[in-house]
Structures are given as C-alpha cells and as structure tokens.
Amino acid sequence: MPPPTTKPHSSTTSFFSAIKPPPSTPPPPLYTLLFLLLLVILGFYFLHHHHSPTTTAAAAADFLTPPQQTSLRFREQFLSLSTNATVSSYLRHLTLRPHLAGTPASADTAEFVHSHFRRLNLDPHRAAYRVLLSYPIRSSLTARFPNGTAVALSLTEEGAKKTGETEEGQNGAVVRPYHAYSPSGAAHAEVVYVNTGSEEDYRQLAALGVRVKGRVVLARKGGELSRGGVVRVAEREGAAAVLLFVGGGGGGGGVERGTVMNGMGDPLTPGWAAAEEGGGGERLGLEEAEASGRFPRIPSLPLSFEDADVILRSLGGQTAPPGWVGPGILAQRVGPGPTVVNLTYQGEKKEVTIQNVFAVIKGLEEPDRYVIMGNHRDAWTYGAVDPNSGTAALLDIARRYALLQRNGWRPRRTIVLSSWDGEEFGMVGSTEWVEQNLVNLGAKAVAYLNVDCAVQGPGFNAAATPQLDELLFEVTKKVKDPDFVGATIYDKWAAMNQATSIERLSGAFSDFAPFLQHGGIPSIDLFYGREYPVYHTAFDSYEWMVKHADPLFHRHVTIAEIWGLIALHLADDSIIPFNYVSYAQQLFKYTDELSHLLDGSTISLHPLVSAIEQFASAAIEAENEVKQLREGDGRDGLTALKQRALNDRLMLTERGFLDADGIQSRHWFKHLIYGPHGDYKSKLDFFPGIADAIHELSVSTTMSRSRQEAAIQHEVWRAARAIQRAAYALRGHIFVP
Ligand SMILES: *[C@@H]1O[C@H](CO)[C@@H](O)[C@H](O)[C@H]1NC(C)=O
Ligand SMILES: *[C@@H]1O[C@H](CO)[C@@H](O)[C@H](O)[C@H]1NC(C)=O
Ligand SMILES: *[C@@H]1O[C@H](CO)[C@@H](O)[C@H](O)[C@H]1NC(C)=O
C-alpha cells in the first residue's frame, strides 16, 4: 500500500478570491453561523452526555450488568495474553521468501495462515479468484550524458540480494523493480525534470517555455498524486515515458515498486467479482479493459534515488523553479536534456489465482452481524513492514481469541478475520470479495477494521470514520504505550488534542477502500510510524524490522491489542459503540472549510448546512436512546428487540452516504463524504465530488464560469442529499412521527 504521505491539511485561502475580484455584495457570513450552530449543538450534547451516569467502557465494574462484566473480563484476559515472541515468530515465517501475489510463494503464505486458523479451531475459509495481474519480463535504461559517456543504469537493488536468490524470475526471487500494469514500450528522448508531476508543475514548466511532449519525464514521488496519477498526468501532457523516484535516498539503493492501474480490483471484472461460477464468469477482453482507461498508455519505470540523482545533476536548460528541491534533491536545472535516455520495458499481464483466507468466530446471539478485521498478505518483496507486520498481529489476535474461546467466550456478533491477497495490484482480493458479497455486507456488516503496514517505525496513528472516534479513544486508554513507561497509548497520541489525532479515510490506498468507499461500511485503519525508507523495496525484510522499526516486537503487540480490543467491543457490546455526534461535528467542520474555499462565489452551502443540522439532531436523539437501552441487559425479549433495532440504525447510517451514481468520473466510488479525489492537488480531502467540480473550474477552458459554478452547486446538493439519507437512516422511521 502507498502510505499516506502527509497529514491532511486545511487551508483557508479562498480559491475564488484568488482568481476573481471580490463581488459587490459580500457573501453571507456562513461560517460564522456554522460555528454558532456548532457551539449550540455541542453545548446541548455535552450537558446531556457528561452529566448522566456514564456506561462507556471506562465505567467502574459495579455499574455494569452481568453480561457487561463478562465482556470486561474477557477484554482483560485478551490483554493479559500478550507475547512478543509469538508475533516475531509469525513475522519470521511469513517473510522467509518474497511472496508477490500470484506466485507459488504467495500461495504458501495462504496455506500458512489457513493452517494457523485451522490449528486454532477457528473455522477457516478460502475465497479464490482468477484475476489479471501484471509482471515484468525485462527492462533497461541507458543514459547518454553531455560529456558523451553512455551509462546503462542497473535498475536493480544492489546489496539487497539474499543467499540463493536471483533477481530474475518470480519463484523465490525478488521481483525486479517495475510498475504493475505499465504497458510494454520504449522511449528514446531528452529528459525533463517535472518535480512531483502535478498539473501545477507542468504549468510552471510551460511558463518557462519547457515542453514535455515526446520527452521522458523524471518525477519525484511526494506530491499528492498517486503513482498512477503521476503517470496519467504525464500521459495527458504528451510525455513519451515516465521515470519515478523517491526523494531522500534513505532506501540506500532501494527502488519503489508499485501499481499504476486506474481504479480498484480486477481490471477484467469491473464492478463484479472474478469468481468462477455464476455471473462472475464474465470477463472483459484485454482490449476492452485497455479501452476503458484502466492502464496507462505510456511506459514507466521506478528508479533509485541514486540513479535519478545522476540524471538530475546532468540536466541543463532552464533553472528549476524555487521549491522544486525535496529532501536531498539539488535540482538546479530542469532540461530538456541535454541528457538523453533510452528506456525499454517489457511486461506481461497474466490471469492468475489469488486467495483470500478467513477465520470465522460465530456470534452466539447475533450470528448474522459481522465485525470484519482485515490485512493483506501479498507483498512486493519480503513484506516485513508491508503488509506482514499486520499479518503477524492478525495471527496473534487469532491465537488470543482462540484462548478466550477455550475459556468460555462466545462473541455476541460474528467476528471475521480476513487475510487478503492481491492488494498491491489495486486492492484486488478485498475488492472482489466486497463486490461478491455486497448485499450481505450492506445488510449485516457492522464495521471493517484494517491494518496494513502495522509497524513502520515509532508513533501510533489511527484513521477512522468519525462515529468510531470515541471507541478509539476509549480503547487506547486501556492499552499501555510500549515506548513510554507508565503511559497509555492515548496519553501520548491523543490526550493533547483529540480533535486532530484521528485521520480520515479518503485515500484509496489499502483494503478499507472497497468496504468504506464502495460498501459504506464504517472503517478504521491503524498503523505505527509513517514514511519508512524501505517502502516497496527489496530491503523491507525481517532484519530491517528488527534493526529499525520494532526490535523487541512490542509495537506489533500493541497494534494487536488495540485492533483486537476494538473488535471485542464491536462484537460484544449490547449497543454498537458508534457515536454519530462526532460525525456531525466533522461534517460541520468540512462545511466550514468549504465555505472559506468558496468565498466569493455564488455557490450556496445552505443545502449542506441544513442537512447536517438534521443529521446532528438525529445523532443526539440516537445518543439518548443509546443511553436508555444500554442500561437494560437485553435479557428480556422486548429490550433485546429494541436494542437490535437501534443497532441496525447505527449500522446502516453510514450506508446513507453512498450514492447509486457514485463520484461522477469514478462511478465505482459511491461514498460522497470520503473517497479519493482525481489526479490533482486538492485542499479538500473530503466531499470528493465537490472537490472534482472545483478543480474542473480551475482548469477548464471550454465551459463558462456560470456553468462550472452550477456544476459545483449540483455536487453540493448531492452531498447534502447523502447526509440527509444518513440522517433518515439514523432516525429509522419512514414517516415523520
Ligand atoms: C559524464 O557525466 C556523467 C553524469 O554527469 C558522470 O557520471 C560521468 O562520470 C562522466 N564521465 C566522464 C568520463 O567524465
Ligand atoms: C534502446 O535500448 C534497447 C535495449 O537495450 C535497444 O534494443 C535499442 O536499440 C536502443 N535504442 C536506441 C535508439 O539506442
Ligand atoms: C520480548 O520482550 C522482552 C522484554 O522486553 C525482550 O527481552 C525479548 O527479547 C523480546 N523478544 C523478542 C523476540 O523480541
């Protein structure tokens, strides 16, 4: 998975005021109103919330009903079962060999996980799919420098090889650095340095008189664009090929592999599961998939920082704009040339079998409600960080849950532990599974809890949909911080500023994307550290983990504890621990940011404000109901039915944010609050449809301004309707009482 590069930022500079003189009539002070409203709502909420006897997880045991006491006991037991030795042995085993999806070594890891679940009596299952993945055959890059020397760059990773392994082939060896789904092709042309490869970067180049048409562009990762986004923008600009490197060179010769496919899941079965039987048997032809824009049309290759640096230093031409230097990058000039490169790439797209593996712990009282935990298993190379630190944690949770079961624990709801395949190629395994089970997941999935790169370095991080904020805070208050004696995770992570510690899930860079952005299932993503230097390189090994990221495996244990405890609450609490007041607050904040951005336009945010008001009052009502129903232990039939009805509303509210038509240029993405924006830098990491429309306005030369503003207004209405649907789902009745 690509790790999120930077924390979401918010900017208050108006996009409109920058391009348009201020209007004669000032816009209504929308955000002032919003803040007043927010204060009123918060005041109301806190009065009623914090003065009533609290029955959250933090409550003293004597306030708890007998079933709650039992749950508490099992949660304490779960925490008492930690051993770093087992986690490290799981990771050691998983990372013995590289295990790229679709290879025999990858199938072996599926077997390892399956047999682990079987030994623990955890009802193991498999789901296999035939999908189109992409592998390299050969690649070459020669540079001819101004002094006349021609150098063949190695394109491999010196020093990363291990005993008995070669660079070639896919069985047991590290796959050569490549971009999955890049077309085969060649380019022989001058090099232009394009900074991070954004549209803005090309505009700056154009202002300098530098054209990239027919040339090979050299781009550094680190902007807001995805890898595929960098290639797509370069293609639109007319480049012949792309060379992509990571600034800083911390990888010590490492080269970052990755996918450049557009969209999610198997490219031959867009929107349906690549299953063998039934309707899943249909496949697009390769030409159809190509015509649908899933793959780039120009070849690209990843480059080590060292190789990129040699090329960068040799460029002449225009002086680089200020700000085009990154960590360790001294880009004096952008070209074009005089350095000329000859790039060739040959790859193959191949149908292979991938396997998701599951363990199922059946719920006793509500077996048809699912709490789904997931991590992918396939790796570009050895995968010690990405993703098997998460797999080791998952296997450890399985071990602990199996022990709890032996001690008499039966969860109220069903827990599913999932080990996905093919994530590195575009969330393929999880996407196919979600597409296959969409109706059942829509009706029965309580939440999806993702862990991908569990441990990349120091520092706990969490991202979530906002109704899970409170649960994250409660759980992290129960888990010790392995790096600070006497402190909890909460103390070091969120005690100072709850409001900004949890990130959101708009990116589509790990397996939560199909669950949340296609299925509308509340989701969490947990990880330690960020931006580690060996990402997607052959250096992502067990040895690197022990040396740099988690020498004693205590961070692995901590992630397992937080992840496992969150699932225990979601599976065992009589009322699902969701708090939609946090969601309402977050939506108000987004609208406030949006109002700053649209300051000076004719666009009205009133529909959004009014929908959020409805949503906020539904959230407060639901909280009051939660308090009343939590007191009852659900033993009598009527209370149990009422709890179930309330839980259904809490579960289904997130689905309201889905829209049948999805985001206009990426219909598969159905969630109108959280989803990836297009291939541009955006100030909004929410409301992806609105973000797209605002971006269109800034770049379109063909549509009139009023039509562009109407397009933004339409997206505002759509987001408002989504929020209103969610409010209706939370209220639960179809007629106003
Ligand atoms: C020619 O230039 C390249 C790139 O600047 C450099 O690496 C190489 O050592 C130079 N060769 C000679 C013979 O000067
Ligand atoms: C570019 O490199 C390829 C592979 O080494 C070679 O076959 C081809 O002739 C080269 N093209 C040019 C123009 O040098
Ligand atoms: C587990 O933790 C203990 C105590 O910190 C440490 O001595 C031991 O080496 C660790 N084991 C592994 C496998 O890292």
From TrEMBL:
<feature type="transmembrane region" description="Helical">
    <location>
        <begin position="30"/>
        <end position="47"/>
    </location>
</feature>
<keyword id="KW-0645">Protease</keyword>
<dbReference type="GO" id="GO:0004181">
    <property type="term" value="F:metallocarboxypeptidase activity"/>
</dbReference>
<keyword id="KW-0812">Transmembrane</keyword>
<feature type="domain" description="Peptidase M28">
    <location>
        <begin position="356"/>
        <end position="543"/>
    </location>
</feature>
<keyword id="KW-0482">Metalloprotease</keyword>
<feature type="domain" description="Transferrin receptor-like dimerisation">
    <location>
        <begin position="603"/>
        <end position="730"/>
    </location>
</feature>
<dbReference type="InterPro" id="IPR007484">
    <property type="entry name" value="Peptidase_M28"/>
</dbReference>
<keyword id="KW-0472">Membrane</keyword>
<dbReference type="InterPro" id="IPR039373">
    <property type="entry name" value="Peptidase_M28B"/>
</dbReference>
<dbReference type="InterPro" id="IPR046450">
    <property type="entry name" value="PA_dom_sf"/>
</dbReference>
<comment type="similarity">
    <text>Belongs to the peptidase M28 family. M28B subfamily.</text>
</comment>
<dbReference type="InterPro" id="IPR007365">
    <property type="entry name" value="TFR-like_dimer_dom"/>
</dbReference>
<dbReference type="Pfam" id="PF04389">
    <property type="entry name" value="Peptidase_M28"/>
</dbReference>
<dbReference type="InterPro" id="IPR036757">
    <property type="entry name" value="TFR-like_dimer_dom_sf"/>
</dbReference>
<keyword id="KW-0862">Zinc</keyword>
<keyword id="KW-0479">Metal-binding</keyword>
<keyword id="KW-0735">Signal-anchor</keyword>
<dbReference type="Pfam" id="PF04253">
    <property type="entry name" value="TFR_dimer"/>
</dbReference>
<keyword id="KW-0325">Glycoprotein</keyword>
<dbReference type="GO" id="GO:0046872">
    <property type="term" value="F:metal ion binding"/>
</dbReference>
<dbReference type="GO" id="GO:0006508">
    <property type="term" value="P:proteolysis"/>
</dbReference>
<keyword id="KW-0378">Hydrolase</keyword>
<protein>
    <recommendedName>
        <fullName>glutamate carboxypeptidase II</fullName>
        <ecNumber>3.4.17.21</ecNumber>
    </recommendedName>
</protein>
<dbReference type="GO" id="GO:0010075">
    <property type="term" value="P:regulation of meristem growth"/>
</dbReference>
<dbReference type="GO" id="GO:0005789">
    <property type="term" value="C:endoplasmic reticulum membrane"/>
</dbReference>
<keyword id="KW-1133">Transmembrane helix</keyword>
